[in-house]
Amino acid sequence: MKMKRCIVPSILLMFSLEAALLVAGRTSAADEVGAILLPSQGQANWGLGLAEEAAMAAAKKRPWKCCDQAVCTRSIPPICSCMDQVFDCPSTCKSCGPSMADPSRHVCQDQYVGDPGPICRPWECCDSPTCTRSNPPTCRCGDEVDKCAPTCKTCLPSRSRPSRRVCIDSYFGPFPPACTPSEAVAAGGN
């Protein structure tokens, strides 16, 4: 019997506290700074939500046309930086700094929310690259293919098999990835 008398005042106290918060301009105690809000709790009092902020940032144009050395967070959407070393940063890049590896080259230090964009290499992969020993190297790819990649500017017929094509563009950047898995090459495939 004594327990029932205690429950009723407790419930009344909780309702009066909630009413006081409502009068003070808050809808619940969960609206405190640092509280974790569910998407269904509405974020109108806080300005833009995370989804809206990400959508606005993604609406901005990517500061680079293409990128081979993208460094991105694992968030959705990702926040990316392009670490490609170039002679001149694109005009869309707001913060261009010198490269740590080669002071004559520059790196765009802007960040972009979203997909880092297409690669700059004239080929997506290469099984027979010829590269200089500089860091990063300047590479050419000697692969004979049916059709050159869309990023290749100079695609010529192969000398050994004229029906095949070779992209003779050179590229300054990281060593290109192999097209054929190393297990297939070891087994004699190409």
Comma- or semicolon-separated keywords:
single chain; 190 residues; alpha+beta; 3-stranded antiparallel β-sheet; 10 strands; 17% strand; elongated
The helix-and-strand class reads alpha+beta
Instruction: List the quaternary state of the chains.
Output: single chain
User: What's the gyration radius in Å?
Assistant: 29 Å
Q: What topology, given as strand order, has the largest sheet?
A: 1-2-5
**Distance N terminus to C terminus?**
85 Å
Uncertain residue ranges: 26-31, 42-48
Q: Give the CA-based shape.
A: elongated
What is the helix content?
10-25%
Count the strands? 10
Largest sheet: 3 strands, antiparallel
How many helices?
3
Strand content: 15-25%
Please write the string of helix (H) and strand (E) elements.
HHEEEEEEEEEEH
Chain-averaged pLDDT: 76
